[in-house]
Amino acid sequence: MTDRNKLAGRTDDYDFFLPEELIAQTPLTVRSDSRLLVLSRENASVSHHCFTDILDYLQPGDCLVLNDSRVIPARLIGEVKAKGAAVEILLLTRKTDKQWEILTKPGKKAKIGAVLSFGGDILTGTIIDILENGNRLIEFEFTGIFEEILDELGSMPLPPYIHERLEDKERYQTVYSKHNGSSAAPTAGLHFTRELLAEIRKKGVRIAFVTLHVGLGTFRPVKVEDILQHHMHAEYCWIKQADADIINQTKRAGGKIIAVGTTACRTLESLADANGWLEESSKWTDIFIYPGYQFKVLDGLITNFHLPKSTLIMLVSAFAGREFVLSAYAEAVKEKYRFFSFGDAMLII
Hints:
By secondary structure, this protein is an alpha/beta fold. It has two domains: 3-71 and 168-348, QueA-like (3-Layer(aba) Sandwich), CATH 3.40.1780; 75-153, QueA-like (Thrombin, subunit H). It is 19% helix and 28% strand. The protein contains seven helices and 17 strands. The protein has helices at residues 3-8, 146-153, 194-202, 241-252, 262-271, 311-320, 322-334, and strands spanning 35-40, 45-50, 63-67, 69-71, 75-80, 85-94, 99-105, 115-118, 123-130, 136-142, 179-182, 206-212, 235-239, 257-260, 281-285, 300-304, 345-348. The strands form three sheets. A nine-stranded mixed beta sheet has the order 2-1-17-16-14-3-12-13-15. Strands 5-6-7-10-9-8 form a six-stranded antiparallel beta barrel. Strands 4-11 form a two-stranded parallel ribbon. Strand 9 (123-130) and strand 10 form a beta hairpin. Helix 6 (311-320) packs across helix 7 (322-334). The two termini are 30 Å apart.
């Protein structure tokens, strides 16, 4: 057994107590009004701030890396045509122009050959396969542009712990979102406003973009006792050469690379070579980062507070240390920080 495996621990090692009332149900009126818990790895200290104080921790010559994926309104409610039974689907991964891998509820209604109708037949789809994981493969039929139909009929696929209705779809998008494809938002970026990003640039901090289309596996807790037995979901990611150049130049000049979110972190660590250098590339990544992992690119991480026993809290623990992270989470609970997607933020430096 390697040292890394020894450090990994068991799933229960990443559990923590969270009162339900601390799970943020709605976004704040102003994105950047959220709170910021700063963790210093150098002296194992935590301090409390507002998110705009992030400027104090970003120095000229540093590079902020953002995931510019955009969430699609992937939740569709319709009916099984032959039976008139209600059905809900969630678009996961586009396979071809008309074929998608989907989640269905209830699953028993979505048998092979079943025809589903949405918006009074504006969009129809036939279940053509049931995959090993229980997901379905659907082939859609429609007239016009699929994305426009989806925008009309679909709704945002909010996480299961959010029970309030989202009034403005754009509040589950980052202000810099660009490429459609995510089933969930890269939520660490929700705190940034265009004005704050302009101030960051003005300070001399460079900004680079990566793209990782976030899948719903991000919300699934690890269910196996030994985390090494967990099968990580795969997500598609890429970086363009101009952005790779910015990151490489920053590293050569001695600046710090700060990833905004675990998705940006996973993209950087997936696409970098053994020495941490990047070039234009893309791949399906199922990288699983847990304690013992040796980071190749990252110097800092801006992230939200994550679910107990999730791969995301394991990633954060890999970067800052499990005991330190859990003690910081306990402090956040004590100080009544807002948790999860619409919650407050953490900076680890």
